[in-house]
Design brief:
single chain; alpha+beta; 5-stranded mixed beta barrel; 7 strands
């Protein structure tokens, strides 16, 4: 062996060992501990994710309220204009959230702000690509800022600005003179 070959041999050995270690252990993934796979989008402002043990995490979106969707056959077949209108917008919000989750690779990053009376984690929801789901829905007029809980919302000003823009441009529910906010619809529907 020449002197050049002898000098290079230890370097190749070291490089080979590093490659073997990477192959054995893989590259570390950059997934935050609060980054979860989504099992299903329930409607425009709720979803179910899974923790690392596969346990369901029911999530209610913080700071906003999306229009309702029909839950029963009676609601689905309702002829009442208020219900039909509410469910139309609710379905659009639901579909948009499904699109967003798909765009984000089926994962969400949760910033939990509270737990509601149903045991759901009230959370700011961001996609793994950083998009803030509540902001998108609000800016597109598919959700409204829910002011009674805004004080616990870290991104309150972002959402208020998104809603003001949607209102000004009459996007989504803001362009529908017959739309009733979801909280009022739930109260009236009882």
């Amino acid at each position: 062996m020449s002197k050049t070959q002898i000098a290079i041999f230890p370097k190749i050995k070291s490089l080979s060992a590093a490659i073997v270690l990477l192959l054995l252990f893989g590259c570390p993934q950059n997934i935050a501990p609060n980054n979860y796979p989504v099992k299903r989008v329930s409607d425009g402002d709720t979803l179910v994710a899974s923790d690392s043990a596969g346990k369901d995490i029911k999530v209610r979106f913080a700071c906003i309220d999306a229009p309702e969707i029909a839950h029963t056959n009676a609601e689905k077949n309702s002829k009442a204009s208020a219900q039909k209108n509410q469910f139309k917008w609710g379905n659009l919000a639901h579909q948009r959230m499904q699109q967003l989750v798909k765009q984000g690779g089926g994962r969400v990053v949760l910033t939990v702000t509270d737990t509601d009376r149903y045991g759901r984690k009230v959370s700011e929801v961001r996609l793994s690509n950083g998009i803030f789901a509540q902001e998108v829905l609000t800016r597109e007029g598919l959700a409204m800022v829910y002011r009674p809980y805004l004080k616990n919302c870290p991104s309150a000003s972002v959402l208020e600005q998104a809603e003001a823009e949607a209102k000004k441009n009459r996007r989504g529910v803001w362009g529908d003179s017959k739309f009733v906010p979801a909280w009022q619809f739930r109260h009236n529907d009882k």
